[in-house]
């Protein structure tokens, strides 16, 4: 299969990650960005180069509010290319592209990799960002079959799992699985503003798990939420009603039925979470966790990671926790199940303490 010539417009988190992932597959993308500094940084990181051949496919990775106009510009600039975008909302962008360039609409196809981070910009880019993540593709009745094939091929090349649906089905689905979670995380973390420093220093993994995405870029999210306001508002209403029931039960736990109400909500949470597929498509997380104890001292983490690199183990994820007042750190490492036993054995044999 010959490699397509790819152009990426917008080299922040998504554009740089895509360039890095393609580069691993031997495809050198052409990069463009309105910010000269971001462009230079993405090139320095190895995401692609500034000039290249005429593209077969252009991937627009800019903020949602300018996506439709940049797509239109690219359709005009490259009259033979397929153009896609990766914006987190699809309906309004598709309608705007259709209105701005009716003659070229069949060469445009919306898409959205369900992969991201709470940080933006080229320096946040990761070559493995798309690995085993759904990459939603939203053709409509006018889309050329070649456009669908080209985006499906691109997603597969970077290890993502292409999924097809309409733009409106997409927007409804991501309201539930992405937009509502962002708002809930932000609302929760916003409460922390009122906590005392001493209280916050006690935070464990629960708070970290539920608040990570509260660090996301408000400018980006305002644009996403504006374009999917109807679906998100509907879900917020239902959540508000759940909250009202919970508050009433919590206000008077002695009232008959109150504990049952609270139990019902917690049980519904269990049912909901069990429906989230793991990173590799199974139920729950498919990784195993190995936790090592390190000294809370300069160089301790580096020594551990260097050792793990030397024994050839790849970490899928890592989390570092400090116990307040104790001179140790807990390094929680996620690995594929096949290497968990080997990692534990080698660490212990070389003097590392595990918990
Ligand atoms: N952040 C995520 O987790 C995530 C995940 C999936 C999809 N997305 C979508 O990907 C797109 C990019 O998000 P990001 O997180 O990479 O943002 P980012 O802020 O990291 O990067 C955006 C880049 O676009 C450039 N840009 C802005 N306007 C431009 C224009 N008119 N022409 C050329 N370049 C322009 C900026 O200079 C910047 O380098 C958004 O549409 C977002 O909805 C984001
Ligand atoms: O994990 C994160 O930090 C994300 O930003 C991921 C996430 C998501 O909700 O899954 C956020 C928005 C994007 O449109 C796609 C992916």
From TrEMBL:
Residues 289-355 form the ACT domain. This is Prephenate dehydrogenase. Belongs to the prephenate/arogenate dehydrogenase family. It holds the Pfam family PDH_C. Residues 4-284 form the Prephenate/arogenate dehydrogenase domain. It catalyses: prephenate + NAD(+) = 3-(4-hydroxyphenyl)pyruvate + CO2 + NADH. Pathway: Amino-acid biosynthesis; L-tyrosine biosynthesis; (4-hydroxyphenyl)pyruvate from prephenate (NAD(+) route): step 1/1. The keyword Oxidoreductase applies. Its EC number is 1.3.1.12. Keywords: Amino-acid biosynthesis, Aromatic amino acid biosynthesis, NAD, Oxidoreductase, Tyrosine biosynthesis.
């Amino acid at each position: 299969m010959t490699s397509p010539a790819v152009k990426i417009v917008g080299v922040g988190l998504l554009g740089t990650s895509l360039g890095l992932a393609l580069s691993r597959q031997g495809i050198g993308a052409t990069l463009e960005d309105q910010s000269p500094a971001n462009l230079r940084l993405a090139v320095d990181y190895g995401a692609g180069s500034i000039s290249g051949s005429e593209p077969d496919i252009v991937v627009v990775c800019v903020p949602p509010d300018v996506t439709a106009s940049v797509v239109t510009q690219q359709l005009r600039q490259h009259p033979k290319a397929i153009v896609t975008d990766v914006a987190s909302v699809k309906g309004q962008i598709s309608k705007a592209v259709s209105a701005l360039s009716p003659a070229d609409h069949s060469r445009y196809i919306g898409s959205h990799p369900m992969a991201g981070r709470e940080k933006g910009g080229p320096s946040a880019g990761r070559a493995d960002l798309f690995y085993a993540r759904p990459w939603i593709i939203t053709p409509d009745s006018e889309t050329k079959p070649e456009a669908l094939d080209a985006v499906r091929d691109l997603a597969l090349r970077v290890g993502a799992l292409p999924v097809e649906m309409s733009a409106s089905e997409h927007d409804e689905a991501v309201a539930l699985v992405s937009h509502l979670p962002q708002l809930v995380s932000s609302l929760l973390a916003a409460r922390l503003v009122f906590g005392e420093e001493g209280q916050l220093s006690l935070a464990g993994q629960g708070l970290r798990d539920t608040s990570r995405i509260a660090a996301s870029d408000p400018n980006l999210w305002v644009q996403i939420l504006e374009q999917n306001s109807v679906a998100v508002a509907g879900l917020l209403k239902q959540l508000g009603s759940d909250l009202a029931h919970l508050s009433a039960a919590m206000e008077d736990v002695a009232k008959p039925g109150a504990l049952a109400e609270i139990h019902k909500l917690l049980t519904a949470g269990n049912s909901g979470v069990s429906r989230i597929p793991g990173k590799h498509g199974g139920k729950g997380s498919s990784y195993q966790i190995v936790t090592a104890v390190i000294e809370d001292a300069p160089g301790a983490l580096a020594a551990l990671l260097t050792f793990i690199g030397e024994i050839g183990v790849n970490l899928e994820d890592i989390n570092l926790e400090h116990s307040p007042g104790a001179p140790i750190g807990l390094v929680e490492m996620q690995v594929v199940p096949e290497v968990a036993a080997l990692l534990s054995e080698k660490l212990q044999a070389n003097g590392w303490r595990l918990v």
